[in-house]
Amino acid sequence: MSAMPRVLIVDDEPDILELLGLALTRMGLEVEAANGVQAALKLLGEKKYNLCLTDMRMADGDGLTVLRHIVERELDTPVAVLTAHGNLENAVAALKAGAFDYLSKPMSIDQLRAVVTAALRLPSARTPVAVKGATLLGKSPAMQEVLELIRRVARSQAPVHISGESGSGKELAARMLVEQSARRDQVFVPVNCGAIPENLMESEFFGYRKGAFTGADKDKAGFFQAAHQGTLLLDEVADLPLAMQVKLLRAIQEKKVRRVGATEEEAVDVRIISSTHRDLAKCVQDGKFRQDLYYRLNVIAITLPALREMREDVPTIAQHVLERLRGESKAHLSKAALQALMTYDFPGNVRELENVIERALALCADELIQPADLQLAPMPTNREGEAGGKYPLTDYLDRVEREAIVEALGKTHFNRTAAAKILGVTFRALRYRMERLSITEQDEPR
Q1: Which fold has domain 6-121?
Q2: I need a labelling partner for 427 at 20 to 30 A (CA). Which of 66, 229, 296, 354 fits?
Q3: How many CB atoms neighbour CB 401 within 10 A?
């Protein structure tokens, strides 16, 4: 391939081909034009291209045919489709089929330049991309499927929705996706949608002009402007109120935002990633989330597995967490402790595992973590007749633990060393538990 990036433009309107050709040539690109689908397929069989821009509707077929030809043959050519203004269905269909991005007609030169620049920044699909910082760990089929999907989705500009239980690593997955994308060197802006007061949402997302309201003493950019040319993560997107969902949908569709107090819209180039621990489809059914916004955010779906669904990965993840937290210590997990971790369900997922390891480091003796140091809570039962008095679970477990400790102390006349042996924990662990539960000699049974 020549040193100058080569772009293939596909349309059946000569005027469009000419205009696009002029614009791209002025950007320093080598341009070749194909008048229709069949001409494009012929050229793709003869030459390699750094980018393909194709119209969706043409006399001899549609842009999806060109897109599928490139995807199925793994030609390593990003595809941007041109759609009629407001035809969101076509754009979403193209993104789901593997398009890099889309442009709505009529398009501005700035929008065209942004898409072309991003596409040309993409690393080759055949070149492994090193991910900086923390990564999702695991060799289980469930995790390998997620990692492969992240790798493939990273090459697109398509909106991605990441779902999974609390603590399963949704933001980490988003960061890994960005690290392998064309926007890896641009800003990443994570936003917790549930933490923003409803009356401040519009100004926080879109910014405001000086004097727009009391206290607006200067212009302020919003999240969209801050993420310009980068990526915006909408964490816990299900918490957005319906009124804000309407405004967010428009911003995503039009790729423009209007600051509070402004009369003009400004273009923003932002890739959207959303996430939530809730079932977004059910939120749509319940009328709590707009269906049109759901389809716009959920173009590509990534579901993170719960830790209990990848038990074979628990030792690897636990060891990684331990090495990160122990500092200069040589603390390590006993075989019994690892087995205990592998059989525990971890309702709080990796985040809970991190808390368990951190606590165990504080409690273990001789730098060897035993099952008792993990303080894994007994899993609650759902059998009928056994639920009474067991909720909230934390209070119930504290009561059980307190009763067992007080009973052991009573048997040993408050000899904590002997009581620790009866309980099967270290002296240090017993002392920690007594302090946490405020157990003193006055609690000893008489």
Answers
A1: Rossmann fold (3.40.50)
A2: 354
A3: 18
